[in-house]
Amino acid sequence: MNSLAFDGFAAEAAVGLLERVAPEVSCVVSPFVDKLFTALAEGHSFIWLGKQDVAALKKAEPVVGEGVENPLILKGNKLFFGKMWQLERDLARQILRIAEVKPEPVDWLSASHHLADWFSEPGSRDQKAAAALALLQNFMVISGGPGTGKTTTVAKLLALLCVNSGKLPRIALVAPTGKAAAHMAKALHRALGQFDAGSDIKAHLENLEGQTVHRLLKFKPPYMQPVYYADNPLPLDVIVVDEASMLDTALLLQLLSAVPDRCRVILLGDENQLPSVGAGAVLAALAQQTMLTETTAQELANLLPEQPFDVSDRPVPLAENIARLTISHRFGEHSGIGCLSRAVVCGNAEDAIAQFERFPNEISINDMNIDKQLETLHRLQQSYWQAVAQNDVKAAFGHQANCVVLTAWRSNAEHFNQAYQAYLKKIGIIKQEERWFAGQMLMISRNDYTLDLFNGDIGLVLRDSESDSGALAVYFPDGTGFRKIALSRLPECETAFAMTVHKSQGSEYKEVWLLPPMGYGVVETAEGGLNRALLYTAITRARERFVFLGKQEALKAACLQEETRRSAVREMLAEGIS
User: Fold this and answer.
1) In this structure, are strands 322-325 and 219-220 parallel, antiparallel, or unpaired?
2) Is the peptide bond prior to 62 cis by the omega test (within 30 degrees of 0)?
3) Is the pLDDT of residue 3 over 70?
4) 531 closest CA partner among 498, 510, 559
5) 64-65 and 139-144 as β-strands: parallel, antiparallel, unpaired?
6) Please, are residues 513 and 549 in contact by the beta-carbon 8 Å criterion?
7) Residue 293: CB atoms within 10 Å
8) What does the alpha-carbon distance between residue 129 and residue 111 come to, in Å, rounded to a whole number?
9) What predicted TM-score, i.e. pTM, was given to this entire model?
10) pLDDT in tens, 420-469
11) At 545, is the secondary structure helix, strand, or coil?
12) Backbone angles phi, psi at 533, to 5 degrees
């Protein structure tokens, strides 16, 4: 059952309840309840109203009002569910609570020395400025596209914090999914080899492991209440959250509510990527031009004599708490993936199409049929299937990300996975009757806290190295090694040779194929298919090559299709909620 169908049932139940408890206003309010459920399913926190609708709903008290006791909240020409309004308001309050804490004083001489030493590489100006500003803020957002060095910046920032505090702070690295958390930890460990932070600090930071937000907060079955919350805060000094664009309003609120008053929070992400599956677009709400007060600018000048940020007498709330990295060290001006992604972000369809002619070896449009897709994918996965045949777990994972097929819709991913498995049967890699087979890529789709497996984790089905019968098991990355899980113990999962763009977030692949939503006889609406954020997210999952498996017209339409989440968090932050 899809979310829209579920929300249809929820809307019907809500309208039925409304007719029983407030029949005098139900005929006026019911149509807006349906619209709110539809908006919520699409990730919006409110709907816009016309003047006549506002006038009508103002007469629908006590169902509609401006207080916490009202089921529907009317603010100007915006209508919220009371719960969603409260969630956003509470989130804004938590952000301001953390941001308003003055961090410990900075040792200017030591910090400026390390900033100059550790950020001496060409093109590191943005990174240095972001790290320096973050030393002055308890709450910080560092945004940037792929290859701009967000994790490198944070690795050096954490080392600066260790030096400045004179002790080794308690740090957590978290992300919305297990694979995003693991990717962040690996990237941070690699970055530690790029500068000399000292043996003690380096060892401390190398011991950090990535984990999901759910794992950090220790959600406990069966009621899935977190161990850590406002009255039992996390025992931490610094929390780094990667892929923050994937966090919905409710989960980010749970995390920030568990943050103790003097704990630093650093959010990393790219606001141009797809927003969360759940309602909200918090990173987009926080993203804005950096603007400092004169006082902060003077403090920053002690670290950076030529600090690069603009100064204002009255900067908007949290304008001092964000820095954007703009220089891509992976996808520069001579990169097809970089040039294409930048054209898409700008909504320049013609420029985007032009990049395919400039960089034919790196990006391409290929409207090949399904048979050709299956044959070509298998050819690109030869190294992977060879590792599977040799039952080499490490090599199989090493080649697992050689090529991935991404789709806008889950139904497209399911259809491609079925077609690819049929092809593998045809060429004899798997048997006709097998449900599980060696080489099957699996993605966990439901959290299992007892097995420490989380939505988005990738596992590979391989022969059990400890079994003489050739039985199969599933292997998952575990730190520097791999752990084995019996097939019978697996939580809900799905085959993942193809996956949705949403599911791919937090990962990188050598080659990425993007299938438009009008494939294999599946009819979807154009409005719900490709859009700018989805296209940009798919392109930036690729390290070396991106292939659009559709027509130019579909890619152009996606560049021009911008979908912005409706959220009131930015306005609530501007109000300065106490």
Assistant:
1) unpaired
2) yes
3) no
4) 559
5) unpaired
6) yes
7) 15
8) 12
9) 0.88
10) 999 999 999 988 777 899 999 999 988 887 888 888 889 999 999 887 77
11) strand
12) -65, -40
